[in-house]
Amino acid sequence: MIKSIKEGEWILLDEINLASESVLNRLATLIDGDYILLNERADIVETKRHKDFRLFLCMNPPYTSAGKKQLPWSLRSKLTEIYVPELDNQNDLWMIIDRNCSNQVSEAMKRRILEFYLKVRE
Question: How many whole angstroms separate alpha carbon 34 and alpha carbon 50?
């Protein structure tokens, strides 16, 4: 992650609402400013954030399973939230399956994947 911060890469952190408070607090300082303070051995090192660095945080709503919590307001207020509902349109699902399966996967197998997904969702 440090290399990404320095070189302007993008990072995606999934299931962020399972992270500890200390991790969330550190992320909040990174989002707020243009640097992050890191403890390396006995020294505190200031690492500058590259102007192109981007951080994406993903999570499922806290009520969907045990252990998940709402993000603290101190962090949420610094983010742009986008709610993405679960896909249920078969045409949309088919496009995702079709684009992500290799050419060796038959149409019949792709249909079975779609049927399996729909059955599991029930």
Answer: 8
28 and 58 assigned to the same domain: yes
H helical segments located in 1-122: 2-7, 21-32, 73-76, 90-100, 107-121
Asked if the structure places residue 83 within a domain, the reply is no
Sequence letter at residue 98: D
- Is the whole model's pTM more than 0.70, yes or no? no
Residues 60 and 13 in one domain: yes
In the DSSP assignment, the letter for residue 64 is G
Q: What are 12-26's pLDDT values in tens digits?
A: 999 998 999 888 888
CA angle in degrees (0–180, nearest 5) for 58-68-10:
20
C-alpha distances out from residue 41 to 6, 18, 61, Å: 20, 27, 37
Which residue range is the domain that position 11 belongs to?
2-76
Tell me, yes or no, whether 62 and 100 share the same domain: no
Rg (CA), the chain: 20
